[in-house]
């Protein structure tokens, strides 16, 4: 029986087991997906001993994603560009391979829930410059966005993304977030603002074209204040839960050999679990 797992520290709140075990059941596959708490000082040894531990692969969460990148013998373009690995698997020769599926998860969510979202790809505005932002900026550049404007409270972090990804990335001051929205085709919140228990995201949407797509990686609440306000003025909005579901697809495919579909049934399972928390 094939066993995969999510590894991190802490890992007990991860919803990945719900996703993968749902797919295992749906496709009638023999296998299981578990949680393994792996402290940072044990991560390298753990990743290098996947096979000995009876695992076909793992998802990697905070704080071990950079360590996973270091340990992987083969890494794909996404992981290299993003500088972190969230999915590990063994190839037929037993080599440890790594990818980062956050960027692809982000665009697949929009492809599914706002088809044609990238038809106009002149200007994207991305709020935040943390790990998630890095993956999303990479994915937007891959999709051909001409300008990706990054606004972050800590300016140096935006500047380091520009240094890394080049001149299509434009750095703006955090205080200009309401002014920058003219001609914007896509607005993305990657900060933790608007999440339950966090501060509100203060932004005036007045300058945002009504045909712009708006998305938030925060999914607790599912409809953040940003999404509610954007939807009220006629923008197409996409919540962040889909990114969590879509980023899981390629790991499942690598470990279990089937490309799973993100269905409404799966979404309902996660929503039900969120309701329980
Ligand atoms: P992730 O990996 O999910 O992107 P992260 O790396 O901790 O998480 O990034 C969190 C983002 O939310 C950062 O862009 C952070 O801004 P800083 O780089 O200035 O820390 C942003 N953020 C968190 N709290 C914020 C606040 N009160 N105001 C503005 N931005 C905030």
Summarize the structure.
The chain is an alpha/beta fold. It contains 11 helices and 12 strands. 2'-monophosphoadenosine-5'-diphosphate binds next to helix 6.
Commentary on this structure:
This protein has 277 residues and is of the alpha/beta class. It contains eleven helices and twelve strands. The protein has helices at residues 16-26, 40-48, 65-71, 77-82, 102-113, 131-142, 155-165, 225-232, 241-246, 249-256, 264-276, and strands spanning 2-8, 31-37, 57-60, 74-75, 87-90, 96-99, 123-127, 147-152, 169-173, 186-189, 213-216, 236-238. The protein has a six-stranded mixed β-sheet with strand order 2-1-3-5-6-4, sandwiched between helices. A six-stranded parallel β-sheet has the order 9-8-7-10-11-12, sandwiched between helices. α6 links the parallel β7 and β8 (147-152). 45% of the residues are buried. The chain binds 2'-monophosphoadenosine-5'-diphosphate (ATR).
Describe the structure using short key phrases:
single chain; 277 residues; alpha/beta; six-stranded mixed beta sheet; six-stranded parallel beta sheet; 11 helices; 12 strands; binds 2'-monophosphoadenosine-5'-diphosphate
Distinct small molecules bound, one entry per kind: 2'-monophosphoadenosine-5'-diphosphate
Quaternary: single chain
Strand-residue proportion: 15-25%
Helix percentage? 25-40%
Topology, number of strands: 12
Low-confidence stretches: none
Mean pLDDT equals 97
What's the arrangement of strands in the largest beta sheet?
Answer: 2-1-3-5-6-4
What structural class results from the helix and strand content? Answer: alpha/beta
Given the C-alpha coordinates, what overall shape results?
globular
Number of helices: 11
Biggest β-sheet description: 6 strands, mixed
Report the radius of gyration as a whole number of Å: 19 Å
Reading the helices and strands in chain order gives EHEHEHEHEEHEHEHEEEHEHHH
Distance between the termini: 31 Å
């Amino acid at each position: 029986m094939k066993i995969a797992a999510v590894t991190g520290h802490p890992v007990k709140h991860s919803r990945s087991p719900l996703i993968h075990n749902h797919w295992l059941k749906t496709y009638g596959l023999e296998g299981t997906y578990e949680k393994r708490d792996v402290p940072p000082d044990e991560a390298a040894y753990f990743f290098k001993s996947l096979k000995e531990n009876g695992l076909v692969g793992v998802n990697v969460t905070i704080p071990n994603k950079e360590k996973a990148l270091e340990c992987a013998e083969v890494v794909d373009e996404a992981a290299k560009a993003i500088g972190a690995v969230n999915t590990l698997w063994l190839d037929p020769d037993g080599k440890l391979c790594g990818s980062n599926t956050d960027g692809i998860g982000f665009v697949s969510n929009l492809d599914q829930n706002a088809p044609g979202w990238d038809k106009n790809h002149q200007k994207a505005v991305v709020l935040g410059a943390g790990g998630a932002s890095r993956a999303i900026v990479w994915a937007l550049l891959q999709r051909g966005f001409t300008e990706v404007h990054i606004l972050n409270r800590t300016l140096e972090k935006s500047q380091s993304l520009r240094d890394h990804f080049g001149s299509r990335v434009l750095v703006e001051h955090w205080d200009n977030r309401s002014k920058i929205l003219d001609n914007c085709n896509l607005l993305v919140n990657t900060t933790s603002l608007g999440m339950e228990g966090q501060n509100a995201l203060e932004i005036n949407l007045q300058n945002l074209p009504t045909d712009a797509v708006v998305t938030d990686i925060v999914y607790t609440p599912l409809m953040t204040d940003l999404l509610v306000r954007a939807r009220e003025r006629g923008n197409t909005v996409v919540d962040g839960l889909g990114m969590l579901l879509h980023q899981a697809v390629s790991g499942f495919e690598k470990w279990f050999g089937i490309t799973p579909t993100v269905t409404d049934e799966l979404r309902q399972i996660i929503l039900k679990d969120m309701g329980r928390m």
